[in-house]
Amino acid sequence: MIHALYRLATTLLGPLIGLYLKRRLARGKEDPARFPERMGRPGRPRPEGRLVWLHGASVGEALSLLPLVERLLGRGLNVLMTTGTVTSARLMAERLPAGAIHQFVPVDRPPWVARFLDHWRPDLVLWAESDFWPNLIEAVGRRSIPLVLVQGRVSARSFAGWQRARGFIARLLSRFELCLGQTPGDAERLAALGAPRTACAGNLKLAVPPLPCDEAELARLRTIIGGRPVWLAASTHPGEEAVAAGVHARLRDRLPGLLTIVVPRHPHRGPEVAAEMAILGLAASRRSAGADPAGDLYVADTMGELGLFLRLAPVAFVGKSLTVEGGQNPFEPARLGAAVLFGPRMSNFADMAAAMLAAGAAEEVADEAALAEAVGRLLADPELLAGRRAAALAWAEAEAGALDAVLAVLEPHLARLEPGPLEHRHAGA
Prior knowledge:
The protein is an alpha/beta fold. The chain has two domains: 2-207 and 402-415, 3-Layer(aba) Sandwich (Rossmann fold); 215-398, Glycogen Phosphorylase B (Rossmann fold). The chain contains 18 helices and 14 strands. The chain has helices at residues 2-12, 14-26, 59-74, 86-95, 110-120, 134-142, 156-162, 166-174, 184-192, 215-225, 240-251, 270-279, 306-312, 331-335, 350-358, 368-380, 382-398, 402-415, and strands spanning 51-55, 78-83, 101-104, 124-128, 147-152, 178-181, 198-199, 230-236, 259-264, 284-286, 297-299, 315-318, 339-342, 362-364. The strands form two sheets. It has a seven-stranded parallel beta sheet, with helices on both faces. Strands 10-11-9-8-12-13-14 form a seven-stranded parallel beta sheet, sandwiched between helices. Strand 4 (124-128), helix 6 and strand 5 (147-152) form a beta-alpha-beta unit. It is globular and about 65 Å long.
């Protein structure tokens, strides 16, 4: 019943959906040059041969799929990657392997979904995490296109919410031939919600290579910073920049020359963050304004440079874990050998956080005072710092075999795509 009502609403309310998209376009949340893709109009021709369509909602999901994209291309398959945000599209333009195609995912209206599928005719669909669009998933199922959920993630909060719509989510999950959870807990929750076949082969976010950086710029900044003690507050959310400022104020007398680098999760907040630091009495410079690290705090409000700053700072606090619920990915700093700190609100990465704590690869801090104590202790004790960094890197490297495990589970689905005549997919969404 809910599915029928949803399909009817998304069919009849086309004008309102179009108006909503135009408002997003006016606010810079859609790409004007590629806006037709959101209505299922292709921006590229479909290549000849077998095509695998991978979908990841935004930056994190898309990045986790890149190693898989490389392996699929290596098998001679065509690869289409879709995402839904302008930021992820820009990142894919830089990071997507040569030969793969990026498109914006169509908005979930039946006519637009049909147009998209009529053009691309995928032979296999790999869907990441939990970006469940009912019309898209149902249309793929009706066309008998094999559909596999990879990187499936169902937080405890989402699980409780889906429990109130069990029939709805069970029908969606029934369209997937296989649901691979990021963790055993995710696989169990997917099964409880009605997925017919679940497994856990590992987390693809642990298979990605270290975040890239400009080596020349890294060398230049290291020269500028010199011997100053440095720590990083990464992917911060509102409230956490003030915490970082408080940590700096607590430590600057103990650690002369201390440099605090703050990387806001959303770079457009850079001016706001710098202004907040000034109100708190700290000298802050902004990277987007062309400034180099000079005063107390350096606000790194640029896109795609987190790898640079994780290499500059031996201690990294992972944001969205003190003042906001959810957490950011703690694997990224561990993969680069940083001593990792995070707050208690890591619900989106609960299993990963627990594994890191158990391995001595991270430390949890309860509040600003605890964060200041941990940062100060690590920066003041080179032996302790070296041990913590080595533990984080060792844990990350041990977990990096997830890609091979996931591909082994996917092999029966990929084997169906051996060279042969392209199967014609009929319209029918």
